[in-house]
């Protein structure tokens, strides 16, 4: 308490606002004054504050409502819809996020009518929303809103037509093709949706589509207005659409108009709109900071000539997504096979021109380096000192000499002779790396890449042919393709190299076939103490989870881990695993996807009793439906007890 006010305010900034106002403020006079400082009450974040309830929100708004300028209640699904009524006390509110909150059009109208200073709004539009129920006072508030994020669960314009001063529009389309009763839905807007959006001041347009033809139909209605008159100040145009999203005459007119009238700083288009067209040749860019060409047939020649303008200085570019662009590092794609070596000069031009990149995605492609010294992909990427997130295919990080000298072993291969069969099984390996292995590791190109990117926070190493059994925006494929030949040599030593990333917060490893003991995972657990998100899928041989012992050792050191996702066939979630997982005291979300996997119900219950922060538990295993239902009921019954703060989501 003898610290200066500045130091105490900095410490208090790490405490949730509800805890500050409702608890800490009552301890002494000094803290009572500091907890009401404008720096702490200006922005209130209730998102992921799972211990907050309706009464706490009511008391919070009553105490500091007039001092709140930014309020984030995104994803507070456990709060009743009446909780939003208390937002009316925040008369000076400028930014409000209610995404994921249940709110009717009448309740929204009443709330917005009192928020005359509001400039940024995020809401959901659910079935039953009726824009005609919005009052004139509500529409007056919406007319002053310049930034809108709208998630659509039903075909509708939502409140967009009322926002006549829009500068930034973020649209998320989550409309199902069928109703809960099984009826096919239409992309036609609801009755009373005759008003059209106003885009004359628009600077940023972003649309993210979930799978389904209805989402595509509705987004075309939004784009039709843009095609009639493209805003002169538009500088960011981004559309993220999974699968096939065909180009129409209206969208073609829109893109032609953009090529003539605007200069962009950020661009993302569906692959069908870019493939085979000369659009990139005609679009003009100002100071671009974001490009996404995911799964486009973009060759390296086009990338250099049309995007980088033959090596033009693009220091402004901070994010580049080339995921699934199998030919982006090759001069031409006409006669090239996907597994051919890359052209290192293209990658070098990219690295030199875009030296300030912070986010780079090169996954879902075969990027094989040649044998020429100094031109390996990892060596070239090591020059990007500002990288914060990086996604690479497994086959791109292997040393060329190692992959050429040591052909991949096939543990499940069928003997080709009639002689005595060789017994197939898992050999015994040391749990830790030997000195010889460490020396070999430190000389590898991937080790040097990790050593040069010490500030990296997010890393993804994913097999080029990997397909999740439960993907978000892609069709599920039961039998995925085998790993790339060069990926066969990537194993424990490469995983151990990741432990050099001291500030790593998120790690994804998928389809690493040469994982034997998982010793590298233990090194990551010991060294990467800031790790919050961990996703592991299809490591080692598919028939057996050989790295279970190392994973349990790793989890004992992950004190900050919040999200864990495991996807592995034949995974046995027993008492030892959940006992190790109980050391992750900060864990909030757990997801296990395992074909033919097993679990022990009593071990799950013990884990849930020890890890009180868990709010989501998804386990897709091979157990019977009866076992799953009984376990789900037991967890919900325990979490619904009077001592529990909030019931977890169980599936």
UniProtKB/TrEMBL annotation:
GO terms for biological process: SCF-dependent proteasomal ubiquitin-dependent protein catabolic process. SUPFAM superfamilies: F-box domain, RNI-like. InterPro entries: F-box-like_dom_sf (IPR036047), F-box_dom (IPR001810), FBXL18_F-box (IPR047948), FBXL18_LRR (IPR045627), LRR_dom_sf (IPR032675). SMART domains: FBOX (SM00256). It comes from the Eukaryota. Residues 3-44 form the F-box domain. PANTHER family: F-BOX AND LEUCINE-RICH REPEAT PROTEIN 18 (PTHR16134:SF19), F-BOX/TPR REPEAT PROTEIN POF3 (PTHR16134). This is F-box and leucine rich repeat protein 18. It comes from Gallus gallus.
